[in-house]
Amino acid sequence: MLKDIRSLSYDELSDEILSLGFPKFRVNQIFSWVHEKCVSSFDEMTNISKDMRVKLAEIFTFDNCKINTKLVSNIDDTVKYLFEFPDGEYVESVVMKYKYGYSICISTQVGCKMGCTFCASAIGGFVRQLSVGEMLTEVYTAQKDLNIKINHMVLMGTGEPLDNYDNVLKMLELITDEKGQNMSMRHISLSTCGVVPKIYDLADKKLGLTLSVSLHAPNNEIRSKSMPINHKYDIDELLKACRYYSDTTNRRISFEYAMIKGFNDSDECAFELAKKLKGILCHVNLIPVNNVRETEYIKSSVERQKKFIDILASRGVTATVRRTLGSDINASCGQLRASKKNK
Ligand code: SAH
């Protein structure tokens, strides 16, 4: 089987190229073609001889994707892609424009095992992991298509990044490599539903990225109703890991809280949440829930959101409502892939 060249770390690529008998400077050239100039074939490597390109193509391949669907928001220029892989699977990515530059939200798995009841990505279950190169190609393909430089990334698309831990870590190593995209770790957020052992592992790596934790409830009773992972690692175990993460890395944790009318948005919930988060270096991101499944989840009212924020603030916990981008193209919820699967 051919190896995906985009999935190799610099050191791995170096070993491979040197063992083929090529000189060291070729490693830098090839790495730069793959990760700086983001090519998707050997033919584009114009400073590499034809013979060498043929040789490389005998051993390596590119895990590329095709743009199946591209939706551009008329409101705010948000672009949503449905990428298609050769095995017929799809993933979604979203590019958003902010004052500070472009940010991409990428998927880390095809489908998801976690089964959160409010989430479109859980529809159809888990299909497979994304390779390192496939995650990178989401960024590289979007960047080339839009002719922009993307300098922020959030791992908040389909999939649980900590359930594809090794590939995600290697992808982070590559996208932050100064010989490639040189993205700053400080500009990367990883979102997890709470795979506790991996939060400890990640903390010990001290990478400097932002950890987002999908909390969505102040107690086990509510959390277990919507997030099956809570049966495995309950809220207290999760928050203990979060404390360890912020203590170890000195980084503020971002807690995601999808506000669902009558489910997790009461004053009592806000008081309980503030109590639970006491002493953790954190920020709460409230997300008005998107109704994406055949569930009866309804967004909390703006007044409710404000009251919730006020209660948290009165107890020393900062919270804001996440800005919605690309609302006309359903930019935030994995529905494009789900609709494709239902056809
Ligand atoms: N598996 C990871 C990352 C993917 S989801 C995680 O669970 O964090 C990205 C974020 O969107 C998570 O906070 C998730 O809980 C949230 N989310 C999923 N469906 C949503 C919906 N219908 N409305 C609002 N937020 C949702």
Mean pLDDT comes to 94
As a percent range, the share of helical residues equals 25-40%
Major β-sheet, in short?
Answer: 10 strands, mixed
State the end-to-end CA separation: 32 Å
Q: Multimeric state of these chains?
A: single chain
What's the CATH topology label of the largest domain?
A: TIM Barrel
Instruction: Using the coordinates above, name the CATH class of the largest domain.
Output: Alpha Beta
Described by the principal axes of the CA atoms, the overall outline is: globular
> Which architecture of the largest domain does the CATH hierarchy give at level 2?
Alpha-Beta Barrel
Task: State the domain count.
Answer: 2
Overall SS class: alpha/beta
Order of strands in the sheet with most strands = 3-4-5-6-9-10-11-12-13-14
Bound molecules: S-adenosyl-L-homocysteine
Give the helix tally.
12
String of helices and strands: EHHHEEEEEEEHEHEHEHHHEHEHEH
Percent in strands: 15-25%
Describe this structure in words.
There is one protein chain. The protein is an alpha/beta fold and 343 residues long. It folds into two domains: 3-61, DNA polymerase, domain 1; 66-341, TIM Barrel, CATH 3.20.20. The chain has twelve helices and 14 strands. The strands form three sheets. A ten-stranded mixed β-sheet has the order 3-4-5-6-9-10-11-12-13-14, with helices on both faces. Strands 1-2 form a two-stranded parallel ribbon. Helix 1 packs across helix 2 and helix 6 runs parallel beside helix 9 (235-249). The chain is globular and about 70 Å long. It binds S-adenosyl-L-homocysteine. S-adenosyl-L-homocysteine binds at residues 114, 116, 118-119, 156, 160, 191-193, 214, 256, 258, 287, 289-290, 292, 333. S-adenosyl-L-homocysteine (SAH) binds at residues 114, 116, 118-119, 156, 160, 191-193, 214, 256, 258, 287, 289-290, 292, 333.
